[in-house]
Specification:
206 residues; 70% helix
């Protein structure tokens, strides 16, 4: 039995989202600008924060924007597929973050997923406008925590928790509630070392 072309496209965009999410921009910028493996410098992370520490704030901003966009672009491609179900949009979003966190191009290792998570939530808000309030609250929480304590990791963990909490207690569809739980879980898993460092007062500030 042949898969209908629309179903084929929906499956394809989920796979593509994982591959696009896996593009390790922090690693590539480190190689291009410094000729070094960013995974062996600073905290060892390929994300914008470590790039900013090791290579410079300008390049940290560049990596943040690129990681953000790779969360947005696959969702806009999904918008072009007629009849794409809400579940497919959420799978595309999770695929982007999973690809970033466990990149096929880096032997299934990667970043912490914060910038890409922000990208996918921003992209999803065009499909689910109800996400704008939880997203705004999470961003506000990130700014407050970062300004108070100067820990990017702590701000990211708390903002992810705020986003998840407000999604769950709201009247959003169950798919979005589940999506928010996965985002929180992904971020916690990738921040286990940071959590340990925070508890030991060894986490690096910005």
């Amino acid at each position: 039995m042949f898969i209908p072309i629309n179903d084929f496209l929906q499956i394809g965009i989920v796979i593509l989202s994982y591959l696009m999410g896996g593009i390790p921009f922090g690693y590539l910028v480190g190689k291009w600008v410094k000729g070094a493996d960013i995974r062996k410098l600073g905290s060892g992370n390929i994300g914008a924060t470590n790039v900013a520490r090791v290579i410079g704030k300008k390049w940290g901003v560049v990596v943040f924007i690129l990681d953000f966009l790779k969360g947005v672009l696959p969702l806009f491609l999904a918008f072009l597929i007629k009849g794409c179900s809400p579940l497919i949009f959420l799978l595309v979003a999770l695929g982007c973050v999973a690809g970033h966190n466990w990149s096929v191009f880096l032997k299934f290792k990667g970043g912490k997923g914060v910038s890409t998570s922000l990208g996918v939530i921003t992209g999803l808000s065009f499909k689910f406008p109800q996400l704008i309030i939880p997203l705004s609250l999470a961003l506000g929480g990130w700014i407050v925590i970062f300004c108070l304590f100067r820990y990017v990791s702590l701000a990211s963990l708390i903002s992810a928790a705020v986003f998840c909490l407000f999604c769950i207690i709201s009247s959003l569809p169950w798919e979005i509630k589940g999506f928010s739980l996965f985002i929180l879980l992904f971020i916690i898993i990738r921040h286990t070392k940071n959590i340990s460092n925070l508890l030991k007062n060894k986490e690096l500030k910005v």
